[in-house]
TrEMBL record:
Name the record gives this protein: CHMP6 protein
Main localization, broad class: membrane
Coiled coil feature spans: 28-70
PANTHER family, per the entry: CHARGED MULTIVESICULAR BODY PROTEIN, CHARGED MULTIVESICULAR BODY PROTEIN 6
Entry keyword Translocase: no
Gene Ontology BP terms: late endosome to vacuole transport via multivesicular body sorting pathway; protein transport; vesicle budding from membrane
Homology family: Belongs to the SNF7 family.
An example Gene Ontology CC term for this record: ESCRT III complex
Alphabetized UniProt keyword annotations: Coiled coil, Endosome, Membrane, Protein transport, Transport
Signal peptide: none
Keyword Membrane: yes
Subcellular location field: Endosome membrane
Length: 159
């Protein structure tokens, strides 16, 4: 708002400068040199005001840019703060000791699975093979009891 007010002020001063320059020419034509000189001094003062106004506008625009950039920086800092809090909470949930324990358990489980895979892949010893065959023979030689067959005739189909 201040910038816009200063721009309006600049326009008024510029219009006054043009009028005073024209008036100073007219006064010189009429031979009123003292009055023209006084008017040119006033015009010079207004030109200095115009320069000061331009500097103030530049300062205001710079300040607006600084404020906008600071707002962006604040959003970035707030984002970093939230991210840092999230990381802190995650670190509380998962301590280094907990991660090391999980990794150790995972390595143990992988090693155990590798041993099972070796056994199933045929790396059994000859004694293991003999014991397995004996167990198979014992199972196949067991007498299996079957249920009794009914002696009653089956019912006839009803059409």
């Amino acid at each position: 708002q201040q910038r816009d007010k200063l721009r309006q002020y600049q326009k008024r001063i510029s219009l006054n400068l043009e009028r005073e320059r024209a008036l100073a020419r007219q006064l010189l034509k009429e031979g009123r040199k003292e009055k023209a000189l006084l008017l040119l001094k006033k015009k010079r003062y207004q030109e200095q005001l115009l320069d000061k106004t331009e500097n103030q506008i530049s300062n205001l625009e710079r300040m607006v840019q600084d404020i906008e950039f600071t707002q962006i920086e604040m959003k970035v800092i707030e984002g970093l703060k939230i991210g840092n809090e999230c990381l802190h909470k995650m670190h509380q949930v998962m301590s280094i000791e907990e991660v090391e324990r999980i990794i150790g358990e995972t390595q143990d489980a992988v090693e155990y699975q590798r041993q099972i895979d070796e056994i199933l892949a045929g790396s059994l010893t000859e004694e293991d093979e003999d014991a397995i065959l004996e167990e198979l023979n014992a199972i196949t030689q067991e007498q299996v009891e079957l249920p009794e067959v009914p002696s009653e005739p089956l019912p006839e189909k009803i059409p």
